[in-house]
UniProtKB/TrEMBL annotation:
Residues 149-166 have a biased composition (Low complexity). The keyword Nucleotidyltransferase does not apply. Residues 332-347 have a biased composition (Basic residues). Keywords: Signal. The keyword Signal applies. This is Protein kinase domain-containing protein.
């Protein structure tokens, strides 16, 4: 029964985070219809079934409080980074005796209040992006103060003036240390607001083609469907022609493999069926942007012309939190290692 209540809460959570207050029931119904395709597996009340669930005790076992407490992690301000932290410049993080540059990593904190919170670790492991995991005992800040460090020590955290510092609560958080993806979500670029409407549209369309291929590849190789197609979860690398001030699309990367965004599937849908699901899903998540820009719904056909020039052929190996180190040789090696890992898991 308790379990059932938790699930109800999670269903509520899905809709609260996916839909803004001005959304209508028709939109929700459309979303539910889109997720109700026979090839998508859901439990009895419509929640995703994700791999690696019910493993919180194992995944979030190692106590990283001391190790992370020694590092003043920075809160990564931005829409797509709730609960995601970065390392201060120049600080390394030790993984298996090896010093890894902190600027190639991000740290995500999870609440461990759902049996599905361990899924993200499993998925990150599968795509070769999980570098460390454990738990962290820290002051709860309930997401209100973005300046707060997750590793603030009990002694040195009395500078806050607003909230009642006498009633500070301490909680155990699950920790996922993962490779940092390159790029930013489009709206995080300072120049995004200055772009003309056609320029914006072109960037979104090219991003969409690349992401569509990556989501389909992920589906085919892992039998997992990435469904949380919010633009905030899509980091875009761009190239800037500084002479003309033109920003062009380079490559897109999905982030946030947490519950409830990943679904398992019964079978791999045909490309046409997948396309129809994909655009319907993206149209749902991009409703506010489309409204603001006066764009029609996205569909497969209007994008065909773009697919040649957009680097859309890039494969699954790029669907991950690629280390932000930029070295192509290293990236290649990492990709090879990752592929080896994928094979090992599939065998
Ligand atoms: C984890 O370590 C910290 C400090 O090293 C300690 O205060 C805390 O009680 C530990 N948590 C558990 C659950 O052992």
């Amino acid at each position: 029964m308790l379990f059932g209540n938790t699930l109800q809460l999670l269903v509520g959570f899905l809709f609260v985070t996916s839909i803004n207050a001005n959304s209508d029931t028709e939109r929700i119904a459309k979303f539910n219809r889109n997720m109700n395709r026979p090839w998508i597996i859901k439990d009895a009340i419509g929640n995703p079934v994700c791999p690696g669930s019910h493993q919180n005790e194992i995944v979030y076992k190692k106590n990283l409080t001391k190790k992370l407490g020694a590092i003043k992690l920075l809160s990564n301000v931005g829409k797509n980074s709730e609960g995601v932290y970065t390392f201060p410049p120049g600080v390394d993080y030790e993984i298996n005796g090896e010093k890894v540059p902190g600027d190639s990593l991000v740290v995500k904190l999870v609440h461990m209040d759902s049996d599905y919170d361990s899924c993200e670790a499993e998925i990150l492991h599968r795509i070769g992006s999980l570098r460390d995991h454990g738990k962290l005992w820290k002051e709860a800040n309930f997401g209100s103060d973005a300046e707060d460090s997750p590793s603030s020590s009990p002694s040195g955290s009395n500078s806050g003036s607003d909230s009642g510092s006498d009633s500070v609560e301490w909680l155990d958080y699950g920790v996922l240390v993962m490779n940092k993806a390159k790029g930013k979500s489009l709206s995080q670029y300072e120049w995004w607001k200055q772009l003309s409407e056609p320029q914006k549209k072109e960037l979104v369309e090219k991003t969409l083609v690349d992401i569509k291929n990556k989501v389909y590849d992920f589906l085919k190789t892992q039998q997992l469907l990435y469904a949380d197609l919010n633009l905030d979860n899509i980091l875009v690398e761009t190239e800037t022609d500084s002479v003309h001030g033109i920003h062009s699309f380079k490559e897109a990367h999905l982030v946030d493999f947490g519950f409830p965004g990943i679904f398992t599937v019964r079978k791999i849908p045909e490309p046409e069926e997948f396309d129809s699901w994909f655009y319907e899903q993206f149209n749902f998540y991009s409703a506010d942007l489309r409204k603001a820009q006066n764009w029609r719904e996205f569909s497969g056909t209007q994008l065909v012309a773009d697919s040649e020039s957009s680097g859309a052929g890039k494969r699954l190996s790029n669907l991950n939190h690629d280390a932000g180190t930029g070295g192509t040789g290293q990236a290649k090696k990492q990709r090879q290692r990752r592929r080896g890992k994928l094979r090992m898991i599939e065998d």
